[in-house]
């Protein structure tokens, strides 16, 4: 694993777009559109009000703020200082209280083991060199009995055609070069990372896009985008 588990090109790419995080018609439009689904799924299973929640790879704070609006006590961490600057600036508008920190998941885990009731890491694992290391950090950070929520993209021909060719080149939903196929993760691989980190997988669910009516939904089938939920055993 590199000294810091991050791809410098990936960091630079998202840092350049940082000022557009909160524009719902920007490159981050898909994140704004799927956020209610992600939030409701997390809250349904973890009832986050009043709980200590950590958002790893928080970027400009779209999910982070929505969890704070549910009265969770939220910390957001990211390695892009530009994205965090936008996230902190947006707090003046939202009037929410969130602790944003520029630190890696691994380093943060060393400082705060077994601190959080809920740990989220959404749309990030497919952008780092060593996703297993991030999963291990999640396991260290979450309290026994706590929940870990993750989302990423499957690695197969269908995912390549829809998530890269379709989303980036045909529908122009995302900037070209947003994703690298080799970094996509099969659900079996992510499940293994979770088990190796002593987390118990509770659910695998797919996120689906309907191009005709341009809506998203959660349901069966994890061929392309999927979410996974795990808990840390009490013992």
From TrEMBL:
GO biological processes: methylation
Catalytic activity: a 3-demethylubiquinol + S-adenosyl-L-methionine = a ubiquinol + S-adenosyl-L-homocysteine + H(+); a 3-(all-trans-polyprenyl)benzene-1,2-diol + S-adenosyl-L-methionine = a 2-methoxy-6-(all-trans-polyprenyl)phenol + S-adenosyl-L-homocysteine + H(+)
Matches recorded under InterPro entries: SAM-dependent_MTases_sf, UbiG_MeTrfase
Annotated residues for binding of S-adenosyl-L-methionine: 38, 57, 78, 122
EC number: 2.1.1.222, 2.1.1.64
The protein's role, per its UniProt record: O-methyltransferase that catalyzes the 2 O-methylation steps in the ubiquinone biosynthetic pathway.
NCBIfam families cross-referenced by the UniProt entry: UbiG
Similarity-based family: Belongs to the methyltransferase superfamily. UbiG/COQ3 family.
Protein name per UniProt: Ubiquinone biosynthesis O-methyltransferase
Organism classification: Bacteria, Pseudomonadati, Pseudomonadota, Betaproteobacteria, Rhodocyclales
């Amino acid at each position: 694993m590199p000294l810091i588990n991050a791809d410098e090109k990936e960091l630079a790419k998202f840092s350049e777009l940082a000022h557009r995080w909160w524009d719902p018609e920007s490159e981050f439009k898909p994140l704004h559109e799927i956020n209610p689904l992600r939030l409701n799924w997390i809250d349904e299973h973890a009832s986050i009000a009043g709980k200590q929640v950590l958002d790893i790879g928080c970027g400009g704070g779209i999910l982070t703020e929505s969890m704070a609006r549910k009265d969770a006590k939220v910390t957001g961490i990211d390695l892009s200082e530009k994205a965090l600057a936008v996230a902190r600036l947006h707090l003046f508008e939202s009037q929410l209280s969130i602790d944003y920190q520029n630190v890696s998941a691994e380093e943060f885990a060393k400082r705060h083991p077994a601190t959080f009731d809920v740990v989220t890491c959404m749309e990030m694992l497919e952008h780092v060199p060593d996703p297993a290391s991030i999963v291990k950090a999640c396991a260290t950070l979450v309290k026994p009995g706590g929940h870990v929520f993750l989302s990423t993209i499957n690695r197969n021909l269908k995912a390549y055609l829809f998530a890269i060719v379709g989303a980036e080149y045909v529908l122009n939903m995302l900037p070209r070069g947003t994703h690298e196929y080799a970094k996509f993760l099969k659900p079996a691989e992510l499940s293994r990372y979770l088990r190796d980190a002593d987390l118990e997988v509770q659910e695998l669910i797919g996120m689906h896009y309907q191009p005709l009516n341009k809506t998203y939904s959660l349901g069966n089938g994890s061929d392309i985008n999927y979410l996974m939920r795990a808990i840390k055993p009490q013992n």
